[in-house]
Write a structure and sequence with these properties.
276 residues; alpha/beta; two-stranded antiparallel ribbon
């Protein structure tokens, strides 16, 4: 069965997210651990979590994917900003253990004129400080569009980070279709070639999740502007090939398209029909 969901609001807690997932025929979902612009997180409601775990098992909702705030920059030139990213992610990983065995995704960050090599070093150093052998959460590096001084716009850069992480058995990659398209990877005309390149440079066994997003911009634009499925430059046929591809169809897919719940329900139904 296709494992697919979307980004849901976490403001009302885990149990409401499970109910929203059920409404749109989703069997997984993504959520922000806290305000996407950063800041303090709401206290964990243990009763809410317990009810969610029961509900999720009943509805076969798994795995769930937490997303770090967009503003965190693990490779900033400013030590205070790097320290804030580290403390926030460390706290998020503690919170994730209330729902064990799931995933936590983050944007690697921007090196801001320091150079990619320094950026990669800072990201790996942070991960080496916050990862622990006991954690059950898999931490995912997200593929990026390569705008500005972003780290992660090339597969090689993610591989270099992973190679520097001591506990990289707790790591993986989340592939964002809009990001890699905007980054210059032609998944419309050369999907198999791109997957082979990913396997050679990172390893398909490390691909743990896919953000399923169309793009408002042409190939290689480096802009990162999501579009609804079939309404952008990637196109619906490519998404149908992705969710049915033998190397990908076992993965969980997460929609981050500009939609409300009804819109997500339509896109989920389209992908389910393609996968049947």
């Amino acid at each position: 069965m296709l494992r697919i969901g979307c980004h849901l609001s976490s403001s009302k807690g885990y149990r409401v997210m499970a109910k929203d997932a059920k409404k749109i025929n989703a069997n997984t979902f993504q959520f922000f651990t806290r305000n996407p612009r950063g800041g303090n997180a709401k206290a964990i409601d243990e009763n809410d979590v317990k009810e969610f775990l029961i509900e999720a098992q009943s509805l076969d909702i798994n795995p769930i994917l937490a997303h770090a705030p967009y503003t965190l920059n693990a490779c900033s030139a400013d030590f205070k900003l790097r320290d804030f990213a580290k403390r926030t992610m460390a706290d998020d990983l503690v919170r994730m253990e209330y729902t064990p065995g799931n995933m936590y995704n983050f944007h690697p960050g921007s090196h801001v004129k320091q150079g990619t090599e320094i950026g990669i070093k800072f990201i790996a150093e942070m991960l080496n400080e916050i990862l622990s052998p006991e954690q059950t959460t898999t931490v995912l590096l997200e593929t990026m569009a390569g705008k500005g001084s972003e780290v992660g716009g090339a597969f090689e850069e993610l591989r270099q980070i992973l190679d520097l992480v001591d506990l990289n058995t707790h790591m993986g990659v989340c592939l964002d279709t809009c990001h890699i398209w905007d980054g210059g990877y032609d998944i419309v005309n050369h999907l198999d070639d791109i997957l082979t390149e990913f396997d050679n440079k990172i390893g398909l066994k490390l691909l743990k999740a896919i953000h399923l997003n169309d793009s408002q911009n042409p190939l290689g634009s480096h802009k990162d502007r999501h579009a609804k499925l079939g309404e952008g430059y990637i196109g619906l046929d490519t998404f149908k090939r992705i969710v049915t591809h033998p190397e990908l169809r076992h993965l969980p897919f997460y929609l981050e398209t500009p939609n409300d719940l009804d819109g997500y329900a339509r896109e989920i139904q389209m992908m389910r029909e393609a996968a049947d």
